[in-house]
Please model this.
Amino acid sequence: MRSFLHALLAAAICCPSVSLAGELTVDFLDVGQGDAMLIRAGGKAVLIDAGIKRARVAAQLAALDVTSLDLVIVSHPHADHMGGMEEVLRSMPVGLYIDNGMPHTTQTYAKLMVAVEELGIPYRSGRTGMELKLGDEAVMNVILPGDTLLRDTRSDLNSNSVVVVLTHGEMDFLFTGDAEEPTEGLISRQSLPSIDVLKVAHHGSDHSSSTSFLRTVNPPIAVISCGEDNRYGHPAPEALERLNSAGALVYRTDQSGHIRAISDGTTVEMLELGNFTGITVEPRAMREIGAPSIVATTVDIHTRPVLQTVTEPAGPAETSTSGMSLSGVRVVPVEPPLTPRERRKRDRKERRDARRQ
Ligand SMILES: [Zn+2]
Model:
């Protein structure tokens, strides 16, 4: 479906509104250099990523009248995606927590995992085939990572971002985390619906949004979440050029602030809402990204008790993955434990990844 209505509002509007029945909204929160997207449909609310801590996503959600979340997804464990998530989890009830199942060595990650466990939030690794229904209105399908994670890429944490297709009637949104070219190649090989709104991977980095990927996905609308004058140079001029050449109309949070997409199932309306929640991210916060403090021990999410209390869905757990509601998502097989040598190698690689985020 390629029918759109673009309504552009230059200034902030008062009084955030709540989704109407039958409508789906995606709010691309203004979190400076990072990602945070709020999806509301069918009486359900989902948060994908929570920006850096100083973006105060918990406060932004409160300003948007969000009092509970049915699902949160952390695309991958970098601070510009999970920095604000612990505060979110501690500020309201959360029904389910999904991440890419890759541990990280940072304090932020360790504290977030402690919060998930302390609060008793059900946890799953997002894997291909997982289907999450948002009432009768919409459905989210996890398309990556697969059961075998990508290894030895430029950044394995980025490359194994949880990638999700959100479908509302004839409208399809693609959320890519910080996927880079190898992951975009895998996405291209999946049988995807026609994508109407693309959350551009990795803040518009030159390592993403390849010509072949954009040719396959061919999105008429693309949204880049990044901070003004960020130190990474996101979005890269080359990536912007590729998006323009692909015919995508590009929206950017560094230029428009809070961006809202409203779908009625057949059209998407895009709103540029400025400082909609009344919370601005100070530029100094951006400079702190990429310098995570390292903790001595690595939290192994696979040993956390929350995983051991999961109720298996009926049928073969490894293959029966479709048609499940938010309360019944399959358990992903646990990877075998690493040897100390393998763990040291992985930790070194993750520290390199952290510097590259
Ligand atoms: Zn990022």
Notes: Residues 78, 80-81, 178, 202-203, 357 surround zinc ion (CB under 6 Å).
